[in-house]
Amino acid sequence: MKQLALSLLIGYCLSSQAQYTDIINSNRPGESYGAYSVGTNVLQLEAGLAYGEDTHSSRLIPDLTQINYEYQLRYGIMERLELMYDGVFATVEETLMRGGRPSTFKFSNFQRNTLGAKYLIYDPNIKRIKEGPNLYSWKKNNRLQWRDLIPAVSFYTGINILAGDNPFQFSTEPDLSLKAVLITQHNFGPKWVLVSNFIVDKPSTDFPTYAGIFTLTHSIYARTGIFAEFQTYINDLYSDEIVRTGVAFLVNKNLQVDVSGLFNFKDTPERWRFGIGASYRLDMHKENEFIYLDN
User: Fold this and answer.
1) Does CATH number 2.40.160.40 belong to domain 5-95+102-282?
2) Could you tell me the residue ranges of all domains in the chain?
3) Per-residue model confidence as pLDDT tens digits over 181-238
C-alpha cells in the first residue's frame, strides 16, 4: 500500500537514513503516490485489472462498461529520486437506447500514459533517527506525538503521452502535456499512514484538471492492511468526487496482492469499479545507503 504502509504492518521502521526498505512498498491499490522512493537500484512493477460501469440518469448520454488494464513501472535512481511510468489501457463498450433498442459502440485505447520522476524534498525521519529514541519511556516512543504532524514531502513532475486517433483525448488536446504533483506523507504511530496528493494535470491545455487525493491506510494484521481514499477533481469537461477502499496482503517481502473498489456520488454518471492487482519488485539494492542532510 502507500509507501511504508505494509512495512509498518510487520513492525518495520525506515532502516538507517535511506528510503530502501526490507520489504516492498507499493502505490497500489489506491491512486495516490507515496512520498518515498522504492530505493536505489530497485525495479518495481505494479499492475491491476479493473471492471466497472458508468450509468447516466439521462437517456441522451450512453452508459458504458469498462475494463482497465493498469500498470506502473518504478525504478529508483537514487534514494530520493525515482523514475515512474504510469498508465491505463481501457476497453470500453458504450450503450445508448435508440427507439427502444440498444445501440452499442466499442473501442480500446490508452486512457493515460505518463512518464515522470519523483524527488523527496524533506524527510522528517532523518531528524528522528539523529535524535534517537527516548531511553526512559517506551510509551513516549510509541504513542502519537506532535512531531508526527510533520510530513515527508515530495514533488513529482511528468509528461502525459497520448497519440493518434484516441477517443479519450478531447479534440484540442496535444499529444504531450505536463503533470505535476505535490505529495505529503504522515506516519501516525506504527499502524496509520496518511498520504495527500495535490495535482495539476495538463495545465497548458484548454481543459486543465485540478485534483486532490487523500489516502488513509491502517494495518490490521501482521501482513494485511486496509485503506480508504477520497479523490476530488475539477475539470470543465467532467468533475467528480470518488471514494475508494480495499485490502492489501503481503505475500512475501517482494510481492503484494490487493483487492479494491470505488464509487462516486453523482448520477451523471453513477460510477463503480472493482479491481484486483499485484506489485512485485526486483531487488538489486546491494548495500545500505545513508543520507546525511540537516533537515
Assistant:
1) yes
2) 5-95+102-282
3) 999 999 887 789 999 999 999 999 999 999 999 999 999 988 999 999 999 999 999 8
